[in-house]
Design brief:
Length: about 80
């Protein structure tokens, strides 16, 4: 039997849980403006967390990856 990926959504239609055919789960946390704040999943027995922050214009400001490195995004004004 082939098992499909299962998705669970919040009241705003954001994917909050995805469970793949091998029962691996990915969980996502969103803030009030539907911007993704955090993604959590298991990789080879390690709990992986990726975090994002956003500026006042809903542009990605920072992203901290699973290795705890932070990438900062800057935007030019026109």
């Amino acid at each position: 039997m082939v098992r499909a990926t299962e998705f669970k959504f919040d009241s705003r239609s954001n994917t909050v849980v995805a469970i793949d055919a091998e029962n691996h789960q990915t969980r996502r946390i969103y803030e009030g403006l539907n911007r993704l704040l955090e993604t959590r999943y298991d990789e080879l027995g390690f709990n992986v967390v990726v975090q994002q922050t956003w500026d006042d214009n809903s542009r990605l400001k920072t992203e901290k990856n699973a290795n705890n490195f932070t990438t900062t995004y800057n935007y030019q004004t026109r």
